[in-house]
Write a structure and sequence with these properties.
single chain; alpha+beta; Transferase(Phosphotransferase), domain 1
């Protein structure tokens, strides 16, 4: 595929339209050969690719887990707009670019999150055609919903209380830090919180999947309620 404009750096410093027309892409230099090994070549049309194992899908979004012998696992998510919602993001930031923005802001706030290694966006005169984001996998992670169903429910009563207290303290500290900076995830459900066992017996919580993330100084109650609402 020709005509792909390489971006000078990974987007994400603010919410904005990355590409108004044409095809723009950024790949972390250390990941160029790794992604190419898995079919995600720098000059390929990523919107038509399905590498690895599909882990989720919808009319627009498909996410794949790819295992590389050296780099380990990574996730390739693509948004493709044909007829469904094809004008929704006309001259508006794409979900993929908003995710990259959210991950970057979370990292700057000191909240564990995903590392983005590649981003791609394709538009025709402002209309979003496709967008893709590639993130590094986190070894030993599982979402909070899976943890509760498969691990927490099998613990003794005392261990359940201890695990609940550790998770609650960590998560509430993170939420307070984000909201103090006027940053809101706005989709903070159990499936968007990854748990990793910590060396001290606790848990590290990584925030993921944040296409609605934003800073908001005025009318803070709606995004606060969105972050604190039960799953």
């Amino acid at each position: 595929m020709t005509g792909i404009r390489p971006l000078p750096m990974m987007p994400g410093n603010r919410r904005k339209v990355v590409c108004r027309h044409g095809h723009a892409r950024y790949i972390d230099p250390s990941w160029v050969s790794i992604l190419a090994d898995c079919g995600l070549a720098p000059d390929a049309d990523w919107s038509a690719l399905s590498p690895g194992v599909r882990v989720s899908e919808s009319k627009v979004t498909n996410c794949f887990r790819v295992d590389h012998p050296v780099a380990g696992s990574f996730y390739f998510k693509r948004y493709v707009y044909t007829r469904y919602k094809k004008l929704r993001y006309f001259m508006r930031p794409s979900k993929a670019s908003n995710e990259v923005f959210g991950y970057r802001q979370l990292a700057e706030l000191g909240i564990p999150t995903l590392e983005v290694v590649a981003f791609s966006e394709h538009r025709l005169f402002g209309r979003l055609v496709s967008a893709c984001v590639v993130t590094r996998g986190i070894d030993g992670s599982r979402d909070l919903e899976t943890f509760a169903r498969e691990e927490w429910s099998a613990m003794t009563s005392a261990d359940r209380q201890q695990a609940l207290q550790l998770i609650r303290e960590t998560l509430f500290t993170q939420v307070r830090r984000a909201h103090a900076a006027n940053f809101f995830h706005q989709d903070l459900h159990w499936r968007n919180l990854l748990l990793v066992d910590d060396v001290d017996g606790g848990y590290r919580i990584h925030w993921i999947d944040c296409p609605r993330a934003r800073y908001q100084r005025l009318r803070r109650n709606p995004p606060i309620l969105a972050d604190l609402a039960p799953p």
